[in-house]
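Recap from last week: sequence in, structure out.
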Amino acid sequence: MNDSQRERYSRQVLFGGIGEAGQQRLVDARVTIVGCGALGSFHAAALVRAGVGRIRLIDRDFVEWSNLQRQWLFEESDAREALPKAVAAARKAAQINSSVIVESVVDDLNPQNAEDLLSDADLLLDGTDNFDTRYLINDFSVERGVPWIYGGAVGSYGIVMPVLPGRGPCFECIYPNPPQGAQPTCETAGVLNTVTASVAAWQASLAMKFLVSGGMPPFLTTMDLWAGTAHQVRLPDAHPDCPACGKRTCRHLHGKERIPISLCGRNAVQIHDRRRPVDLRELRQRLAPLGETRANEFAVRFHHESYEMTIFADGRAIIKGTTDPGIARSLYSRFIGN
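Predicted structure tokens:
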């Protein structure tokens, strides 16, 4: 570190868990943040201020007005300009700490680009909002030995779990199957900005501990800020029959478990997600306050802004108003579930 950095990070260096040697490890570290929403934007702000030397931000979405309630790096001007979240976050990060190298990637993480986007990181941080991407990150982590930290939040509830390949269970050990049926999302159940900040701060703290010491406490942490409760459970041993870390098939990384998306007619995308049956009556009730909704025994049709979504009982959906699979996947996640 130079003299300017020593002064800048002096209060952090004084903390016994970090010290000057630990701060140097932070300065030398590389972290990739997948998703720049409520969690990822907080990760970026915290780690940039902490002096992590190189940070890559990956996100496929744009800043919207509804993001400003909880996504800490963005301002009204970002929403007016509809800036990509990764770009807006990188610009703000550069204003916070010009000595940190921040790279923005406007893309959807997938099996084809995972090697290019994740391979040079010391640690991966989960700022995503869907299980598909988390299983992909987990497979990459297991196959390449790169640790990652899972985090999620909806309503007032949050959860955090570190994954250290070879030293404990992986994500698929704990979640062998994705949740079935329509799941609550921030778009349908709402979310407190304090719970996203709490989850992201916990993840960022674990990240700094790992980058400084090479370890993380082996606990799964849950919290409900409205109820004022928090719980921790010690993570079990890795499961020998886990497809990822036990059998090492890593099928999500190699494309065998990725939800197939295909263009479907003019200005429409079809998502063939037949793994998660949908309760159409419950889905209609949940979507009705959010836009024009019609339903019969076979499907729910939902209008949102310029998009029309038709969701079938087997989980399949047709999204009209776009030919971009990334936008279609985002809409599916927001309104139907992860």
